[in-house]
């Protein structure tokens, strides 16, 4: 019998069986070679696009350490409102953007998106007042809508079930890696303050926005347009329940509605909304919190990146755990528990320790704040039956995450500075709620599978489709 993943053929006395095995090995070898091509082309390019996506959202946090709010005459409540409008724009156009991607393909649509939101991010250097700030953040959100679900859906068409979680984790490295390097880059760029008559935050928006537009050209010319036939065949062979996505596929309104009203999937969205909402205030105010410990703006931005880099290892660990055990829901819940424990410890002791210990606590909070997120995305994808349903379900999941971020902008308020003890309490509550609904989702899938298998054993017929718990 051929061990296809390793390409090993055991000896067999029957020549026809041996011939079939050799054909299967050659077929799978072509599929594995195609997968490696995707690993070194599609995955890094989508990663790069998500990295600049996050840089253009995250650099506001570093701009605040350079006096951005004071220069445009706004307070913390206005900053929070601006971020809410940005996230609202993403939510509004998430599903329409994903439907366009299905029609014209990822290369043209995703590269156009990256160019447009890079241009809008660059134009933020001209912001002078509250109105300009709110308009700029709103347009930035509208232009960024659809990139994350589009990138995730594109990846899901290239990999088998057991390969997907790690690749989605690598893709999200772009988002969380952007979160990590943003303050590090800012610590250098902000030193340009005064050059050319521009403030440091203006240089920040200019340089990172122009870099984003350059990345869009890389995506346009290098992102593959056509499917790799060998890889498509491999996916269908190993995951015979899955159908490969195809460029040019129409998604009818009836499928959108059917996917939206699929109530067994709703706990996913509630859990994601609750837990991911807690990341929003951390990305906006961590550098400012570190400044209040007694560090200057350059030091604060450099120290703020540590938690983001540690988060990459946490993300990869839970992605690996999910793939190794195939227990997607359990991996999500374990990641929630770790995050919750860190939050409880931080809120309990951070007011009674020195500045380096406080920095360490906030760093660990940032490290565990998103470890569950890519795994939860894979969990949603693996419980969709067809490409169109998967595309819409991903968009809905991202909409729930972005809606959470929109609400989370209000967790850290001006009357709770400098260490946001009330905000931490709110975050602990939201993580607990999200963990509860992840458990509910596990139970929903388990009960459905039990009933479906029992009915099949009693009545016979075709084996039922089962959820991945």
Automatic annotation (TrEMBL):
Say where the protein is mainly found. Answer: membrane
Transmembrane region(s): 108-127, 133-156, 168-189, 201-223, 266-286, 298-318, 330-349, 361-380, 392-412, 424-448
Q: Which residues form the signal peptide?
A: none
Q: Name one GO cellular component term.
A: membrane
Annotated membrane topology is: Multi-pass membrane protein
Q: Which InterPro entries match?
A: MFS (IPR011701), MFS_dom (IPR020846), MFS_trans_sf (IPR036259)
Q: Which Pfam families match?
A: MFS_1 (PF07690)
For this chain, one GO molecular function annotation is:
transmembrane transporter activity
Query: Which spans of this chain does the record mark as coiled coil?
Result: none
Outline the extent of the Major facilitator superfamily (MFS) profile domain: 42-469
Q: Which UniProt keywords apply?
A: Membrane, Transmembrane, Transmembrane helix, Transport
Question: According to its UniProt record, where is this protein located?
Answer: Membrane
Q: Which family does it belong to?
A: Belongs to the major facilitator superfamily. Allantoate permease family.
Q: What is this protein called?
A: MFS general substrate transporter
The organism named in the record is Lentithecium fluviatile CBS 122367
């Amino acid at each position: 019998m051929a061990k296809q993943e390793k390409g090993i053929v055991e000896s067999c006395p029957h020549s026809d069986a041996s011939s079939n095995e050799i054909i299967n090995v050659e077929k799978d070898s072509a599929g594995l070679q195609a997968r490696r091509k995707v690993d070194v082309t599609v995955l890094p390019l989508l990663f790069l696009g998500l990295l600049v996506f996050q840089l253009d959202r995250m650099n506001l946090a570093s701009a605040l350490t350079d006096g951005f709010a004071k220069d445009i005459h706004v307070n913390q409540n206005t900053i929070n409102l601006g971020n809410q409008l940005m996230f609202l724009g993403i939510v509004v156009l998430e599903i329409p953007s994903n439907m366009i991607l299905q029609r014209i393909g990822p290369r043209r649509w995703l590269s156009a998106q990256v160019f447009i939101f890079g241009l809008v991010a660059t134009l933020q250097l001209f912001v002078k007042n509250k109105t300009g700030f709110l308009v700029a953040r709103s347009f930035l959100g509208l232009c960024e809508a659809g990139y994350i679900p589009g990138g995730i859906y594109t990846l899901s068409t290239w990999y088998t079930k057991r390969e997907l979680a790690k690749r989605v984790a690598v893709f999200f490295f772009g988002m969380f890696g952007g979160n990590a390097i943003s303050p590090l880059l800012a610590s250098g760029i902000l030193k340009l303050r005064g050059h050319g008559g521009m403030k440091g935050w203006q240089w920040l928006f200019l340089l990172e926005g122009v870099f984003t537009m350059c990345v869009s050209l890389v995506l346009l010319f290098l992102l593959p347009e056509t499917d790799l036939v060998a890889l498509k065949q491999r996916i269908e062979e190993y995951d015979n329940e899955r159908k490969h996505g195809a460029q040019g596929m129409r998604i009818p309104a009836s499928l959108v509605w059917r996917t939206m009203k699929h109530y067994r999937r709703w706990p996913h969205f509630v859990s994601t909304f609750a837990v991911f909402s807690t990341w929003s205030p951390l990305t906006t105010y961590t550098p400012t919190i570190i400044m209040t410990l007694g560090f200057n703006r350059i030091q604060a931005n450099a120290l703020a990146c540590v938690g983001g880099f540690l988060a990459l290892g946490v993300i990869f660990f839970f992605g690996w755990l999910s793939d190794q055990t195939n227990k997607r829901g359990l991996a999500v819940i374990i990641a929630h528990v770790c995050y919750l424990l860190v939050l409880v410890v931080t809120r309990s002791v951070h007011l009674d320790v020195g500045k380096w210990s406080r920095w360490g606590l906030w760093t660990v909070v940032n490290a565990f704040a998103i470890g569950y997120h890519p795994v939860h995305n894979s969990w949603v994808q693996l419980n969709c039956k067809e490409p169109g349903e998967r595309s819409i379900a991903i968009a809905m999941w991202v909409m729930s995450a972005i809606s959470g971020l929109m609400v989370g902008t209000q967790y850290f308020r001006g009357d709770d500075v400098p260490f946001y003890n009330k905000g931490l309490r709110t975050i602990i509550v939201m993580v607990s709620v999200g963990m509860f609904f992840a458990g509910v989702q596990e139970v929903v899938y388990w009960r459905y599978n039990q009933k479906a298998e029992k009915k099949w054993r009693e009545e016979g017929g075709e084996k039922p489709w089962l959820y991945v718990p």
